[in-house]
Design goal:
The protein has 428 residues and is an alpha/beta fold. Helix content is 38%, strand content 17%. The model has no long low-confidence stretch (mean pLDDT 92).
Length: 428
């Protein structure tokens, strides 16, 4: 077991040198930990003096392997190489929890809403004079954060991080929801669910476990020790109208807010203070981001919606939609519109998987194959001009990953905003 006492006596291998892997290396250097090596399958020059001549021997000899979240054991080459050392594998989150016993921690996971919920929690804490920092999958790796005494640390944890973690035990654990996502990475739905439930596995009776009604039955079957809290969305809706915030007035964030409302009670934050805290809250970029209103048209950037389940939130909360979608669909994902069809006037398919989206939309809604963002925006604006409807919404909610055309969802969202502002001036 790692502890502050024996930490410098142990040896480590950091596998994967992305943002997280680099944060681990920098953490070791700051703390004068010299007994570590590094490995990256593509970047052989980074920290070259720490790269072992023989990976197999290094894996066998070290005490712990710190695996970056982007590395999957479902890759057959990696599986063969690493699976025999599975008990040695930990993550940057494990290092933090093992070496920071006194920090108050809130860990948030789930398929949808993680980042927004983390921002909502941090906003609430800061407004009520709790010193707070946010990190993990939401941006800054936890080992790069500067945390002082009596701070709250709010961590967004992805299933990639949790899959290999062994020592996470947050004071407050949020599992928002689970739907099919990243199944190709995890290998099965069961593996994906198990990774999410790791935030509860090591909690004790003094710690709190928040999850929805559906997942609470799984929690109970597993005989977990944390104090189970199942948020009731109706409790939040009783006070929702008192929050003077157009973004939070949408139904889009009701589930997230119901979790945070229950959390506020645990910290003895009054309902009055809760309501007051959110009057000036602003949502994250690329999550149902209303960034442009011009005459009869609203532009919404929901680029973070990388599965249909994520896009459903925007489609449910919007009318007269000119819907831009497409990219790399998630494994086993399906577009089941049902009553959502009435909210959509026309759709525009982008990306390199046109056949998939045509099959999904065929005989359901009207679609146009645009292939790229520029063509989708210009065609939508032409259609709006021709149809002469009012209160139109051009919505980018791709229901798929961005990697076929963009580096990440942020780049996709920024490009959409840039093109929308340019062509809105030309057509509206």
């Amino acid at each position: 077991m790692i502890s502050n006492q024996n930490f410098k006596k142990l040896s480590f291998l950091v596998y994967g040198l992305g943002l997280t892997g680099k944060s681990v290396v920098n953490f070791f250097k700051r703390n004068n930990i010299s007994r570590f090596q590094v490995w990256d399958d593509t970047n052989r020059d980074l920290y070259k003096n720490k790269r072992p001549p023989n990976l197999g021997k290094a894996l066998k000899r070290v005490n712990y392997i710190i695996l970056s979240p982007g590395v999957t054991l479902n890759d057959q080459k990696l599986k063969k190489r690493l699976l025999r050392y599975k008990k040695k594998i930990i993550t940057d989150l494990d290092l933090f929890f093992l070496l920071n016993k006194s920090t108050k921690t809130v860990v948030v996971t789930g398929t949808n809403g993680k980042s927004t919920t983390c921002k909502i929690i941090a906003h609430l804490l800061n407004k009520n004079k709790f010193k707070t920092v946010v990190g993990g999958n939401i941006g800054t790796p936890v080992l790069n954060l500067k945390i002082k005494k009596n701070f709250f640390l709010v961590i967004e944890a992805s299933s990639f991080q949790l899959a290999h973690s062994q020592h996470i035990n947050p004071d407050y654990a949020f599992l928002l929801n689970i739907s099919n996502d990243h199944i190709d990475w995890h290998g099965s739905v069961n593996n994906y669910i198990n990774s999410k439930f790791k935030i509860f596995n090591l909690q004790n009776k003094k710690q709190f476990s928040l999850t929805n009604k559906k997942l609470s039955s799984v929690f109970k079957r597993r005989n977990l020790l944390g104090k189970l809290i199942v948020p009731n969305i109706l409790n939040y809706k009783k006070i929702k109208s008192k929050i003077k915030n157009p973004y939070l007035n949408l139904d889009l964030n009701d589930e997230n807010m119901s979790f945070v409302f229950e959390f506020s009670k645990l910290l003895a934050i009054s309902a009055k203070s809760f309501i007051k805290s959110f009057n000036n809250f602003k949502g994250l970029h690329h999550r149902y981001e209303i960034f442009l209103k011009k005459k009869n048209c609203i532009f919404i950037n929901d680029s973070k919606a990388t599965s249909f389940q994520s896009s459903k939130f925007a489609l449910q909360n919007t009318k007269n939609i000119f819907w831009i979608l497409g990219g790399l669909p998630k494994k086993n994902d399906k577009i089941i519109l049902g009553n959502l069809k009435k909210n959509i006037i026309k759709s525009y398919i982008i990306g390199k998987n046109v056949k998939f989206f045509k099959r999904q939309l065929h005989n359901k809604i009207n679609y146009f194959v645009a292939n790229d963002l520029e063509k989708s925006i210009t065609q939508a604006l032409k259609d709006i001009k021709y149809l002469k409807k009012s209160n139109n919404v051009i919505l980018l909610s791709p229901a798929s990953a961005s990697f076929d055309q963009f580096k990440n969802f942020e780049k996709r969202g920024e490009k959409f905003k840039q093109l929308s502002k340019f062509y809105a001036r030309k057509y509206i």
